[in-house]
Amino acid sequence: MKLSYINNEYFQKLISIEIDPKVKNKLISDMCRINILHMICCAGSGHIGSSFSSIDLMNWVLGEINKNHENLYFFSSKGHDAPALYNSLIAYGKLDFSFLNKLRKIDGLPGHPDVNTPNIFTNTGSLGMGISKSKGIIKANRLKGIKSKVIVLTGDGELQEGQIWESLNRVSQENLNELIIIVDNNKFQSDRSVKITSDLNDLESKFKSFGIETISCNGNDVNEFSKAFETLEKSNKPGILIADTIKGFGVSFMHGDKLEEGEFYQFHSGSISQDVFDSSISELSKRISDLTEKHNLDFKIELSNYETPEISLSSNKKQSLLASYSKSIVSLAEQNEKIVALDGDLILDTGLIEFEKKFPNRFIECGIAEQDMVSQAGSFAKEGFIPIVHSFSSFLTSRPNEQIYNNSTEETKVIYSGFLSGLLPGGPGHSHQAVRDIASMSGIPNLEMIQPNSEKQVEEILKYSISSPHNIYLRFCSIPFTIPENFDELSKLERGVGNTISNGKEICMITYSPTMLSEIVNSKELLLKNNIDPKIISMPWINTFDDNWIKEELSNYHLIVVEDHYIEGGFAEKLSLAILKMGLNIKVDVIGINEIPKSGTNQEVLDHHGLSSKIISEKVIRLTKS
Amino acid sequence: MKLSYINNEYFQKLISIEIDPKVKNKLISDMCRINILHMICCAGSGHIGSSFSSIDLMNWVLGEINKNHENLYFFSSKGHDAPALYNSLIAYGKLDFSFLNKLRKIDGLPGHPDVNTPNIFTNTGSLGMGISKSKGIIKANRLKGIKSKVIVLTGDGELQEGQIWESLNRVSQENLNELIIIVDNNKFQSDRSVKITSDLNDLESKFKSFGIETISCNGNDVNEFSKAFETLEKSNKPGILIADTIKGFGVSFMHGDKLEEGEFYQFHSGSISQDVFDSSISELSKRISDLTEKHNLDFKIELSNYETPEISLSSNKKQSLLASYSKSIVSLAEQNEKIVALDGDLILDTGLIEFEKKFPNRFIECGIAEQDMVSQAGSFAKEGFIPIVHSFSSFLTSRPNEQIYNNSTEETKVIYSGFLSGLLPGGPGHSHQAVRDIASMSGIPNLEMIQPNSEKQVEEILKYSISSPHNIYLRFCSIPFTIPENFDELSKLERGVGNTISNGKEICMITYSPTMLSEIVNSKELLLKNNIDPKIISMPWINTFDDNWIKEELSNYHLIVVEDHYIEGGFAEKLSLAILKMGLNIKVDVIGINEIPKSGTNQEVLDHHGLSSKIISEKVIRLTKS
């Protein structure tokens, strides 16, 4: 892609000019918007809509409010607007300009904020935690005898998370006057409008009922929000600023307020085309130059150019489980009217668009409220339905963890479909990388965990899940991947039994993850060169083992388990106990994750965690020679 | 204890008499109060305060509102008021009278509601799930084309749980007119007043801001609440009834509204003395007879008598970890001013009373809001403090599961102190029995799980935890237990190393749980008679193993792991992987939990799950002879 961006010198020059801070805010914010687009296009993904709705506010906080406080903590609770935050930090010299091209790169800026980046105070990206964290910061500073100011930005969709309302409860009681909460009220969440997804009703009176000072204003109009901040700062009470913003503000055709009711917003996450990039930059550049002219500023920007290697979006011959899931769930629901699907504002990412169209009554939208969703599912199950609960695995297996267990204690049956499972994609970072989902779903009575390894298996496994008496956790990989030759012929679905993909000697490599399987298969060539000829097994059953299969297929091998999951609490532990209960003597080694997942390109992340084919083969060589 | 109760015939007679239903409600409610006290005293524990505040409402719903609906679902979301619910169900013929003496017995009524009891619609006891469940019930019935009415009772302290506010969000949007939410607004929660613990501020306007019809009234005055129900039922909209009640209502000296600010409420849970029982019964009996006289009713009750075996509360020579923890945390906090303690309304059960007194600024009350508590702790850690988070293990390890993980991704250090860990006490039932805590805490990077096995170890382990660079999960047993002879001399704390309590041959029994250790030690006698002489190891380290120790102490034994935890996701899986990674050939068997824990006396529950010394020895005999 042919990109353009604004060089650092222009930001520094503009900041040094003495003009009305409001005009400065407008200029810097549009300049940031150009660099946000540049940054996201370099990365190949990122959240444009909420970065654009919030950048004006962020720049005001970091550029102006910051001047009044020695010890200001500012962070975004939703974290999805990281490209805005990064660019605002860069503009105000709090983050090195060289990071501009390094969003979602391993030596750069994580997809969601992480404390290892300068001036990032806390890890966000998992929604709803920001106000709680602010409270901790304030009280810790009080204990240290230091005066602090904490400004936390939340989304509006994010307000559907229960933790937000937990965290508001003692704010007024404890007189947390150091706190200002900004709501980026841009009216859109991941898929559609907040009003349709889960209406927040009277937001202002909600906040006021917690005894907290609340002001609403236009959050894209510096004249309005600067005054609102002034009022809140003067009040010396904890305060909430409901900033009415427009999602995608700043580029007219990205404005969310132009959509029809129920329409999907196109610029929530993901990159854009060259055309869209060019039109956006031209609109933003024009507004910047119009404004400088209007104020007679000696300030003219020349854009710098940058060409990125074209990111191939083709998934030729690659497996896409999402499409297959989408088709399968509809076809199975046609045959079984007891199937209902519950969604937590991720219909696009969990393949439910078609399902919702065909079965609007059996599609249960819950908003970003996973605990509520899971408990609702429990009741559907109790009433004789087969509820299938959808979300990203990182959230689904942990946020409603107690609710999932509670459902299981009613001895009903619920299916949990988790997407974005495993280490990849690497871009979004550790809040979205589900590498402890197996651990957190362990010890749920009567629950089977299964990971489909091909499009064909998706259908078979979903069919099995629906007819099975067990609770089921389906662990879906959300990125396209290749499968070994003849995989579909070799992989017969049989409970507790793995599929031998290629025969070998002495060493047996086994995994449940399709991306890991692909790396293992790729490692074979190098291994053969080293006289290691591993047997390779694809094992879709994560916590169910057929004893005979273990005996027949695993005995007499040195087993090497490959996991895109933390080793602790993972598959290898479960398989090990199964082996030892049979009294078998098998050496087991595990190649898996030990440290917190990095954000980066998929290859970078695989390499870093030692899970790329090359490093896997090196490890196997070491393990077998030791 | 010498107890008395009202026999079933009086309830049935009163119900059949045609009198003003309001007078009937008053009489039945006081009669239920007598039987609630009887039931709780038979059980030895149970929640009097919230049973008394809510019984009038429950009887109105089950006795009167029920008449207008063919398909009424009524349940308590908090579930702590189960003795009231059970007695109301018994009074109205929906539960057999013979259950009266069987609260918290294995063949009787669980400590918190469970669907295996007739007319219990859903499992509660874990707070905050009830409204979500109601929504699921309503929508499932709609899909079935059946008209339903759902009335759900919540606590007021319970409203601090975030899920409540998640679940309210789409109630009005979806026109869930079948729903009535009753808040038993008795102003007290587990420890102290709601106002002090975590003030709910303007509750009525909170609910109204969700677009839900809300009425407040006196919830112990049938004249008031009967009218309020009528209004809500007529409105044909989802409705909320804020029932202002008095905790302990009905027995004057139990009334919560008489307490000074900050005072602990004495009748939240637990049993009462003979004196308290007698005075209560006499006050209740007098009011019943006064009321029947006033209305000239031909209705005179004679109480039946029942004598229970005295429940021994002595814990002579028994270890009490709570007292030891209480002392240790204060003494360590005196030496280290970085220590802060966070509490989720369980100060009495987590031993923090003294800590709060000594270090009021370093004691952080969070209310019943575990997610908020854990994220606050994360910030304290990030600011250089050593936060120790307290709750029951069943809640602490699951409700804020994602928040715990998020903290760990900041590479700070937090200590999680979980109480009521393991299968015992058996009384409260599966919502409170933490038997999957090890699983849900697995895969948290850099987290060590440790279980103290004696009072002395509490101090040592807490000391270790504070100085260790790791996150720590402390798994505390909350019931008194005996330790093996010379245990304190034999148990040296060394990272990853177990303590051999008694030597043996061929068989090695190992556990991390002090109650299991005590059962194992008791099983030895029977085993010796069968020529089995097991080595016994107490292993406080749940997920940390010293390889040399494994090699030296476990090799050449048939290992039998005993767990008061689900086998899946437990200690045996972790130890098995450690063994196989070393290439050792050890046979492993596990005696642990496979099914959902039963509620009952401790001995009943141990027997049922095969974890009493007798059954353990039988299992070991079978396992070693096979």
Gist of the model:
Two copies of one chain form a homodimer. By secondary structure, chain A is an alpha/beta fold.
Distance between the termini of chain A: 48 Å
Shape of chain A: globular
> Approximately what portion of the residues of chain A adopt beta-strand conformation?
15-25%
Oligomerization state of this entry? homodimer
Major beta sheet, strand line-up of chain A? 9-8-10-11-13-12
The number of strands of chain A is: 18
Using a beta-carbon cutoff below 8 angstroms, give the protein chain pair with the largest interface and the number of residues from each chain: A-B, 115 and 115 residues
Discrete helix count of chain A: 23
SS class of chain A: alpha/beta
Helix content of chain A: 25-40%
Structural features, described:
The structure is a homodimer of 626-residue chains. In chain A, 40% of the residues lie in helices and 15% in strands. With 626 residues, the first copy, chain A, is an alpha/beta fold. In chain A, helix 2 packs across helix 4 and helix 3 runs parallel beside helix 4. Chain A has a six-stranded parallel beta sheet, sandwiched between helices. At the A-B interface, helix 5, helix 6, helix 8, helix 13 and helix 15 of A face helix 5, helix 6, helix 8, helix 13 and helix 15 of B.
Keywords:
626 residues; 6-stranded parallel beta sheet; 18 strands
Which helices and strands appear, and what pairs or packs with what?
The structure is a homodimer of 626-residue chains.
Chain A: E1 2-5, H1 8-16, H2 21-43, H3 48-63, E2 72-76, H4 82-91, H5 130-144, E3 149-155, H6 162-168, E4 179-185, H7 194-198, H8 203-208, E5 213-218, H9 222-235, E6 239-244, H10 274-294, E7 304-307, H11 321-335, E8 339-343, H12 353-358, E9 363-365, H13 370-382, E10 386-392, H14 393-396, H15 401-409, E11 415-419, H16 437-440, E12 447-450, H17 455-467, E13 471-475, H18 487-490, E14 499-502, E15 507-511, H19 514-529, E16 535-538, H20 547-554, E17 558-566, H21 571-581, E18 588-593, H22 602-608, H23 613-625
Parallel strand pairs in A: 2-3, 3-4, 4-6, 5-6, 8-9, 8-10, 10-11, 11-13, 12-13, 15-16, 15-17, 17-18
Antiparallel strand pairs in A: 1-7, 14-16
Helix pairs in contact in A: 2-3, 2-4, 2-10, 3-4, 5-6, 11-17, 13-15, 19-23
